[in-house]
Write a structure and sequence with these properties.
Elements lengths: L1 E2 L3 E5 L5 H8 L2 H8 L10 H11 L8 E7 L5 E11 L4 E8 L9 H16 L4 E7 L3 H10 L2 E12 L2 E11 H5 L3
Parallel strand pairs: 5-6
Antiparallel strand pairs: 1-2, 2-3, 3-4, 4-5, 6-8, 7-8
Helix pairs in contact: 1-3
C-alpha cells in the first residue's frame, strides 16, 4: 500500500471488478478518461471479468493496475496504472482515472498521480514517464502540467469526441525533473 495526503494506492483485487464495471459504463468516465472511446465502454460484466483475469496476473516489472482509495474512509474511487515499461529505454506510460464523480476536481487524482510517479521513479531505474490525454480534457491537462509534466507534442485532430475533433496531447517527465521537485 502506498499512502498519500488524500488517497492510497493498493494492489488490485478481484472484487474491484464491480467498480470498474460501473465506471466503464458511466458515460462521464468514458468521456473524460478515454475520450469517448467505445473500446473503453460501455462494456459487459463478462468483458470486465476477462480483463480482470489478465490485470490480476500482470507482472509488476512490466505493468500494473492499482486501486485508488479515499484515505479518509477507504472508499474505492478510482484506478491508476502503468504499462509499456521498457527497462532498456527506461520508459513507462501511466494513467490515473477517478471514477467516482464526487471525488473529481478535489485533488484526489493529482495525489494518486504523485504517488504513482514517486513509486515508479523510486522503485525502477526509469529515465522518463509518459502519459497523454485529449485537448478537451482541460482538468487533466492542468493536473499534469501542474505536477510538472511537460507537454511534448500533439497529434492534431487525432481524437473524436461527440462528433468533434480534438488533439491527443502527449506529456513527459524526466527523472531529473522529478528529483528536482518537478
Amino acid at each position: 500500500m502506498i499512502e498519500g495526503k488524500l488517497v492510497r494506492l493498493r494492489t488490485l483485487r478481484s472484487d474491484d471488478a464491480e467498480h470498474h464495471l460501473r465506471w466503464r459504463n458511466d458515460p462521464q468516465v468514458v468521456r473524460w478518461a478515454a475520450a469517448g472511446d467505445p473500446c473503453f465502454g460501455p462494456v459487459t460484466a463478462e468483458a470486465v471479468g476477462l480483463g480482470f483475469d489478465t490485470m490480476l496476473r500482470l507482472v509488476p516489472r512490466e505493468s500494473a493496475v492499482f486501486t485508488v482509495e479515499n484515505l479518509e474512509d477507504g472508499r474505492v474511487i478510482g484506478m491508476a496504472d502503468y504499462r509499456d515499461m521498457d527497462p532498456y529505454a527506461g520508459v513507462a506510460t501511466l494513467g490515473v482515472t477517478i471514477g467516482e464523480r464526487e471525488f473529481r476536481g478535489r485533488g484526489h487524482g493529482r495525489d494518486a498521480l504523485r504517488l504513482l510517479v514517486d513509486h515508479l521513479f523510486g522503485a525502477y531505474p526509469l529515465s522518463r514517464l509518459e502519459l497523454d490525454t485529449w485537448s478537451g480534457n482541460e482538468r487533466a491537462v492542468r493536473a499534469f502540467t501542474g505536477f510538472g509534466f511537460r507537454e511534448e507534442g500533439r497529434r492534431r485532430s487525432a481524437v473524436m469526441v461527440e462528433g468533434e475533433r480534438y488533439d491527443r496531447v502527449l506529456f513527459g517527465m524526466l527523472r531529473e525533473e522529478w528529483a528536482n521537485g518537478a
